[in-house]
Design brief:
- The complex is a heterodimer of chains A (345) and B (283).
- A 6-stranded mixed β-sheet of chain A has the order 6-7-8-3-9-10, sandwiched between helices.
- Chain A has 2 domains: 224 residues, Rossmann fold (3-Layer(aba) Sandwich), CATH 3.40.50; 98 residues, Nucleic acid-binding proteins (OB fold (Dihydrolipoamide Acetyltransferase, E2P), Beta Barrel), CATH 2.40.50.140.
- Chain A has 9 helices and 18 strands.
- Chain A is an alpha+beta fold and 345 residues long.
- Chain B has 13 helices and 2 strands, in the order αββαααααααααααα.
- The two termini of chain B are 37 Å apart.
- Chain B has a two-stranded antiparallel ribbon.
- Chain B is 71% helix and 1% strand.
- Chain B is mainly alpha-helical.
- Classes of the chains: A alpha+beta (345), B mainly alpha (283).
Chain lengths: 345, 283
């Protein structure tokens, strides 16, 4: 178990700078999720922590020790890869034992650790099989087991659930959360799936274009996004944004708040409630309704031409395509962003 | 059976029939005109008692050996260096090493006949090093050494093709598998021996079969370089067969040599397959 600190970390490929000014502090035993869209640099950052990518400048410290020049295997980290990265010609046992053998551990110790990890992950019966004889979920457990036997100070997960089907993904997500609760080891988890981020994380790091946009707990990010990017990225379906001048004036008067011409106003779909079109905070022409059983999603277009989504109780909208529907919201759930996209309210 | 019929028919026409024809012909004496005369195993007994056959077989064995323990391991080693980018400009080295494979054997043969000539490039270099301006390279005069220049040439010429085959297969290994090994503490040597090599055993087998087949049947490069000479010192079974058949018009005898070549190929390939299967089981 160890804390992890990144100070002014930057990464360039030749003259192209892909990451800059990364400052992060991850406490002992925390599960931190790096989240962001494809190409935002989250996997690169994880690989820099692992030592698989060199950093161009800055420092990375694990357990208080700067590890910039420490080789990957000596950093006290273990990584679970998206593709599992199991050794195809080795049995599950040998896959899990490989790192310990490289480290020169005694056979008794190797056997004890491998069997303990296999027991905890319920893969004891698979120890003599080869990776090709395993399902995707079983391979992922072996990959996690291979990391566990090393007893690392920091676990690194690089989109570990991406190759699993939806049901298995949900199940494995819970198992990873339980694993973290049981081991209480520092874990860094990279994903582009915000559901994984919100459900697993003690803290979330939102990345965009090689920069950290915001660091906070899942609820901080959900309720108080620092900027428009985070507001749009966290939450599903994503937050609605309104920046049309006429609409803003009307919204400002209904909500009784001061808005500048260049402001953007954001409301999450689940915070919009159906009301009479005359008293509405925003109204729009219905395009389509998606029914999820537990709730419906209504897709609408406002008078100003802005597409927005409302999450409403099931079967509460019985209108036809083109029907004008009004929605309101309480002012605490309305976010205001200034002209550069930073949170103003 | 019905669906494979056309393919089997073509296979029988171009492979099975000629082999059977050669097999039948190998039990006869025939100069190409008139009717073949049945002579039983006479061609085989004559062949097995001919020192030229045994010397050619010895040369073929050396060629197979250079292919199996020279070209293939060297090709794999070079491919691994390029795959892991352990040198700068890997694309340049890839092109340079592969280039000789693209050359015509006739061109290569003519070139190296000059290089290894008694007063050729090698003789010139050795002469300059030893301070003997009249130094002559007499390697072809040695019965046991006459094949050596050819062995050097095939090592230079064909290693590139094995390098490309291995490189293509190495590139199929997920980079994450290698990275996992790096994180697990494996050294470069450990990655090579414990992670990469075991997955390449089927490729070693395929390239070995390709190399053995090529080594036993090849003769064109040697024909241009030495014509199997001086005398029969650098001859191989392919040349021995061609000369017997088309220079001396002994079609029956030539067919016996051809059958012997086929048998040798089959035996060596079967043994090699068994070894590779055992290796694959053990790893």
């Amino acid at each position: 178990m160890a804390s992890l600190k990144l100070r002014n970390v930057a990464k360039s490929y030749g003259t192209v700078q892909v990451m800059s000014g990364i400052n992060l502090s991850i406490g002992d035993g925390k599960l931190v999720v790096f989240v962001g869209p494809s190409g935002c640099g989250k996997s690169t950052l994880l690989r820099m922590i692992a030592g698989l990518e060199e950093i161009t400048s800055g420092t990375i410290s694990i357990g208080g020790e700067v590890v910039n020049d420490v080789i990957p295997s000596q950093r006290g980290v273990a990584m679970v890869f998206q593709s599992y990265a199991l050794y195809p010609h080795m049995t599950v046992y040998n896959n899990m034992a490989f790192a310990l053998r490289q480290a020169g551990s005694a056979q008794d110790e190797i056997d004890r650790r491998v069997r303990a990890a296999a027991e905890s992950l319920q893969i004891k019966d698979l120890l003599n099989r080869h990776p090709r004889q395993l399902s995707g979920g079983q391979r992922q457990r072996v990959a996690i087991g291979r990391a566990i036997v090393r007893e690392p100070e920091v676990f690194l997960f690089d989109e570990p659930l991406s190759n699993l089907d939806a049901a298995l993904r949900a199940q494995t997500r819970v198992e990873i959360a339980e694993l973290h609760a049981r081991l209480n080891t520092t874990m860094i988890y990279v994903t582009h799936d915000q559901v994984e981020a919100l459900t697993l994380a003690d803290n979330i790091v939102v990345l965009n274009n090689g920069r950290v946009e915001q660091v906070g707990t899942p609820m901080e990010l959900y309720h108080c996004p620092a900027n428009k990017f985070v507001a749009g990225f966290i939450g599903s379906p994503q937050m609605n944004f309104f920046s049309d001048e006429a609409e803003l004036n009307r919204l400002a008067s209904v909500l009784r708040i001061e808005l500048e011409e260049t402001s953007t106003l954001g409301v999450r779909p689940e915070h919009l409630f159906l009301c009479d079109a005359g008293k509405s905070f925003v109204s729009g022409a219905l395009r389509i309704v998606e029914q999820f059983g537990e709730y419906d999603l209504a897709y609408l277009t406002s008078k100003g031409g802005v597409d927005f989504i409302a999450k409403v109780p099931p079967e509460s909208i019985r209108g036809e395509r083109g029907q004008i529907l009004g929605f309101t919201a309480v002012s605490e759930h309305v976010h205001v962003f200034n002209e550069v996209g930073l949170r103003a309210r | 059976m019905l669906l494979t019929g056309p393919a089997l028919f073509v296979y029988a026409l171009v492979i099975v029939l000629p082999v059977l024809y050669s097999l039948v012909l190998s039990f006869t004496e025939w100069s190409g005109v008139g009717w073949p005369r049945f002579v039983g195993f006479e061609n085989y007994s004559r062949m097995l008692s001919d020192p030229v056959f045994w010397h050619s077989l010895r040369n073929n064995a050396l060629i197979v050996l250079v292919s199996l323990i020279g070209q293939i391991p060297l090709g794999f080693f070079l491919a691994y260096i390029l795959y892991r980018r352990l040198v700068r400009l890997p694309a340049f080295f890839e092109a340079v090493i592969f280039f000789p494979t693209l050359l015509s054997p006739v061109v290569v043969g003519l070139l190296f006949a000059v290089v290894f000539a008694p007063v050729g490039l090698i003789a010139d270099l050795i002469g300059k090093i030893q301070g003997l301006p009249l130094f002559e390279l007499l390697i072809f005069n040695s019965k046991s050494m006459a094949i050596v220049p050819y062995l050097i040439v095939i090592l230079w010429m064909y290693t590139g093709i094995y390098m490309i085959i291995f490189l293509a297969n190495l590139q199929k290994i997920q980079s994450e598998t290698i990275e996992a090994a790096v994180l697990d503490g494996a050294s470069e040597w450990g990655i090579l021996i414990k992670i990469v090599m075991p997955g390449q055993i089927p490729v070693f087998l395929t390239t070995s079969i390709y190399a053995i087949a090529g080594s036993l049947k090849g003769f064109e490069l040697l024909w241009v370089m030495t014509e199997g000479g001086p005398s029969y010192y650098s001859s191989v079974l392919g040349l021995y067969m061609i000369e017997s058949t088309f220079s001396y018009y002994k079609y029956g005898f030539g067919s016996a040599v051809a059958i012997m070549l086929i048998l040798l190929s089959v035996v060596v390939i079967v043994v090699l397959t068994q070894v590779a299967e055992r290796l694959a089981r053990e790893t």
